[in-house]
Amino acid sequence: MTQPTRTTASVDTSLSKETSSKFKRRFMLRLVAVFIGGMFLDGYILGIIGPVTGLMRSDLQLDALSLGMIAAGPLVGIFVGSPLAGWATDKFGRKPMFLVDMGLFLVASGAQFFVTSGDGAVIQLAIIRFFMGVAIGGEYAIGGPLLSEFSPPKLRGRLLGLTLIAWYVGFMMAFIIGTLLHDAGTPWRLVIGTSTILAFVLFLARLGLPESPSWLITKGRREEALAIARRYVESPQMHNSITEEIDLRMIQEAQAAQSSTKIKGASFGMLFSRQYWRTTLFTAGFWFCAVTPYFAIATFADEVLNQFGFGGGWAGGVGLSALAAAGVVITVVLIDKLGRRILTVPGQWLCAGILLIIGVWANAPAILVLVLFLAFSFFNAGYTTMTQVYPAELFPGHLRGIGMGFAAAFSRIGAALGTFALPWAISNIGLGPSMVVAAAVAFLGAVLSQWLAPETKGRTLAEISEDFSH
Predict the structure, then answer these.
(1) Of 39, 94, 235, 306, which one has the greatest count of Cβ atoms within 10 A?
(2) Nearest-angstrom CA–CA distance, 265 and 45
């Protein structure tokens, strides 16, 4: 009779340890680490190809078109993967899709080791890196909602902003590691395949993560949501947020029952409904206008830096990314103190003005152009941090994945325009007018944010989505 008593006590002790503050803090650190690791990996795979481009061109006899196909593969993949993963994560859950996404990344990254030489190499690499881009897009649409739904309101902006720092650090580390391995004579397949190591570690780290309580609420599984919150969430604010989402969902279901309609699952059409069109317009439009001038001005920046002997090499590959990363770091430090709106709107107006000056002042001193460019890089990176925050906060739980996925996909159109259209524009309309066009895009983003950007500091997700959807 004494043995069962000891067993019960042992079980009680185990449960107590699993619901302790220390256990909950470890879980939150793990969740933040695996998501930040995913964004680090995203930046890494986009940056690792640069240092070995020469080796690939020589080994595979690549022309400009073939090299462009390989480089563009991830961008196309992100455009496809973001909305697709967003739809899937709202339908099937954050937990399974978070693991499936990294599994796809692991398989695709590992496939780079086995690319053959010959005529089929370009197609192989383009397809492989396309699927890696699909996985990158999935990180935006799955990880962002998952992290926001577990984050305490008072820390949510900071935690989401850290992901962009991780992206810049990943891009810089890829350049550093790729250059060192290249200088050591490492084959290019091994260099670009180094992402497989981190993908494997992150895949293992994601095993056993719980489902999001907010997603469970959207499926009517309220008791499971509360059980997970009690076990994993330490913040009283987070418990209140989950309770508010349950109450809000019950009100929505009651209203739907009275009008003889049903609460439907996530769909792309719902993003443009009367209730949510403002959320979609702001998040997608803001993200588009933030990244389009950045990719355009990055091309112009290399020409400026070359005039001062800084273009290319370590200064170009690491220095500029470090400057942008500094803008993100400062924003992350201040975001939960000053708020979102003040760190979003003024910076956009400032960057629009900077680009306009560069565009219309044809004979500006080179040093002034350089200073203006550096200022643009810093402030643009600051408000671009909000592209990781606003979409994850503003969409309601049942649309959070598909909404963030759509916004990320729409932003890739801007990235492509900035990357590929600027050389044509410079050749056909000139450098000055091209910068005026970039200023117009930044100006449009500033107008949009001045009109729609809300203040969400310290508020629960239920409060935010309820206010912004009416």
Answers:
(1) 94
(2) 34
Question: How far, in whole angstroms, is CA 384 from its chain's centroid?
Answer: 10
Evaluated on CA atoms 277, 401, 293, 53, the torsion sign reads negative
Nearest-angstrom CA–CA distance, 215 and 97: 12
- The predicted-structure confidence for 53-103, as pLDDT tens digits, reads as follows 778 888 888 776 777 778 778 878 888 999 999 999 999 999 999 999 999
What is d(CA 91, CA 113) in angstroms, rounded to the nearest whole number?
Answer: 34
Length of the chain: 470
Residues whose CB falls within 8 Å of the CB of residue 40, separated by 6 or more in sequence, listed in order:
166, 167, 169, 170, 173, 198
| pTM as predicted | 0.79
Tokens of 421: 């259209």
Q: How many domains does the chain have?
A: 3
Same domain, 299 and 419: yes
Given a cut of 80, whether residue 129 has pLDDT beyond it is: yes
Domain shared by 201 and 56, yes or no: yes
**Measured between alpha carbons, how far is residue 90 from residues 112, 137, 142, 356, 360 in Å?**
31, 15, 9, 41, 46
Runs of H (alpha helix) within 233-365: 236-258, 277-307, 313-314, 320-338, 345-360
d(CA 354, CA 337): 27
| Domain of 90, in residue numbers | 20-209
Cα maximum dimension of the chain: 93
Q: What's the rounded Cα separation, in Å, for the pair 127 and 114?
A: 13
- Counting Cβ atoms within 10 Å, is residue 331 exposed (0-12), middle (13-18) or buried (19+)? buried
Q: Is residue 269 part of a domain?
A: no
The two tokens of residue 299 are 């091309």
**CATH number of the CATH domain containing 382:** 1.20.1250.20
Amino acid residing at 250: M
User: Cβ atoms within 10 A of the Cβ of 96, count?
Assistant: 13
Phi/psi at 104 (5° precision): -60, -45
Q: Are 108 and 428 in contact (CB under 8 A)?
A: no
Q: Look at residue 151 and give its three-state secondary structure.
A: coil
> Which residue would you say has higher pLDDT here, 301 or 37?
37
d(CA 8, CA 321): 56
Question: What gap in Å lies between CA 175 and CA 182, rounded to an integer?
Answer: 10
Q: What is the DSSP letter of 210?
A: P
Q: What are phi and psi of 63, to 5 degrees?
A: -95, 180
